[in-house]
Amino acid sequence: MGVSAYEKLGALGGPSVGGGAWQLVTTIPSPYPGSVSSMEVTGLGVDFQYYAVVGSNFQHSSGSAELRFLMGDSGGMQTGSGDYLWHRAMNDQDVSTYQSSIGFADDSIQISPGTTGTTTEPWGIDFVLYINTMRDSNNLPTAHGHYVYQEGSNGDFSGGQIFGSVSNIANMDRIGVEYAGTTIGEGRLSVYGIAHD
User: Fold this and answer.
1) Are 70 and 79 in contact (CB under 8 A)?
2) How is the chain split among helix, strand and coil, in percent rounded to 5?
3) Label partner for 42 (CA 20 to 30 A): which of 25, 89, 118, 143?
4) Number of structural domains found in the chain
């Protein structure tokens, strides 16, 4: 028996649709430039265990700042200096070797650096992160995915893979995106619940 186009897409079917279906939880549109310090989505971990976080065209308001990803629970976002472990691999479009950055005991997961090279700032950052909210004696909430951005106005692009986890958290129910030390000038954030039963 064939599979219908609706069953293949599945995204409009809600939590009752079989494994693999995506349901939009919320979208935060691009703010008025400089008007918000962070974007936060709460209420996760109820209907779904797994989520996809989609970000597009993120830019900071001023200066040079890294884009950071946060996870938290009912007590708020985890921002302690030892709360996160993460690794980010990066490659430029014209370079054959990978660079990497790590956070062994950090206060967030770094999606992008504040600068590339010496002075070039990341612009138009796009990313997709898959989130597992489960927490038990053997597992921590995790994030993994990919990102890409333009290096300032020179037209070059960089991107790569990222993964990380958060500790010291009871029941993960929120995620957030922010720039370190400045506000969000532009960016759109959507969260999808992924049926995985």
Assistant:
1) yes
2) 5, 55, 45
3) 89
4) 1
Q: What are the φ and ψ backbone dihedral angles of 7, each rounded to 5 degrees?
A: -70, -35
Enclosing domain of residue 146? 21-194
Q: Which two tokens stand for residue 91?
A: 């490659």
Please give the C-alpha separations between residue 194 and each of 34, 45, 52, 70, in angstroms, as whole numbers: 32, 11, 7, 19
* In a domain? residue 5: no
The residue type of 83 is D
Q: Which residue has the tokens 């400089």?
A: 34
Is 31 inside any structural domain? yes
Are the beta carbons of 36 and 115 closer than 8 angstroms? no
> Given a cut of 50, is residue 1 above it in pLDDT?
no
**CATH number assigned to the domain comprising residue 157:** 2.60.120
**Containing H/E element for 101?**
strand 99-106
Instruction: Please indicate, yes or no, if residue 4 is contained in any of the structural domains.
Output: no
Residues in the chain: 197
Assess whether pLDDT exceeds 60 at residue 7.
no
Residue 14 domain-assigned (yes or no): no
pTM for this predicted structure: 0.83
178 within 8 A of 82, measured Cβ to Cβ: no
pLDDT grade, residue 144 (50/70/90)? very high
Q: Give the DSSP H or E segment for 22.
A: strand 22-28
Instruction: Give the residues across from 164 on adjacent strands.
Output: 86, 143
